[in-house]
Description:
It is a single chain. By secondary structure, the protein is an alpha/beta fold. The protein contains ten helices and eight strands. It has one domain (about 5-240): Aldolase class I (TIM Barrel), CATH 3.20.20. The chain has helices spanning about 15-25, 75-80, 90-95, 100-110, 125-130, 130-145, 150, 175-190, 210-215, 230-240, and strands at about 5-10, 30-35, 50-55, 80-85, 115-120, 155-160, 200, 220-225. α4 packs across α6. The mean pLDDT is about 95. Bound molecules: 2-phosphoglycolic acid.
Amino acid sequence: MTRLVAGNWKMNGSLAANRDLLDGLMAVPGVEMAVCVPYPYLAQLLERPAGVALGAQDVSEFEAGAYTGEVSAGMLAEFGCRYVIVGHSERRALFGEDDAVVGRKARAALAHGLVPIVCVGETLAERDEGRVMAVIGRQLAAVLDALGVAAMAQVVVAYEPVWAIGIGRSASVEQVGEVHAAIRSWLAGQGVAAAAVRLLYGGSMKADNAAALFAVPDVDGGLVGGASLVAADFMVISRAAGGGV
Ligand code: PGA
């Protein structure tokens, strides 16, 4: 399947900085690229390099109405978003999002034709307790409950071990391979068309480790934080996803 490399800009950027960054991006044949930007910059990103898809970093579970501060899936669709990240560990840990909310957000996204990038992953304590797949299974089950088996095959799943995010050192290729295979077999075990689900790795994916991570079976792309803010690095990672150097 076509690999997806999605940049998660997080709460970074300015009109000027975004312009510079976008100037350095161009499509890579055979790879899907996306940038998930802060809401106010969606309008700026209406003009962007060809072949770079647009995404947001969160979405409301609600359709419309008295929900001050929320942004609906319909609004994101109107601005040309194809993707939206849901359930990022920062939202779970810092903003109190639980599994059920994440499931409802994924459902709201799909209802408007957006592809949810559902983030799952364990903390270091959970890994140390041997609960990696218990945690990820619980996170995925909530999304499956909200979507049903057929729609579940339309989501992108991003495995992001919380302990590898933003620290400069990714999980090892062995750890990534093990968890990705386990996620795919968990999905298959629930009756989901698991072979069709793109599984991204995220957590300190960088220019110098991307090729090794993409060589791992079941790694169908990357969710890239810090390195997505440097155009040259994001390009190296995207080319690595395409098998190039
Ligand atoms: P990082 O962030 O690449 O800076 O580790 C990844 C993410 O949180 O999506």
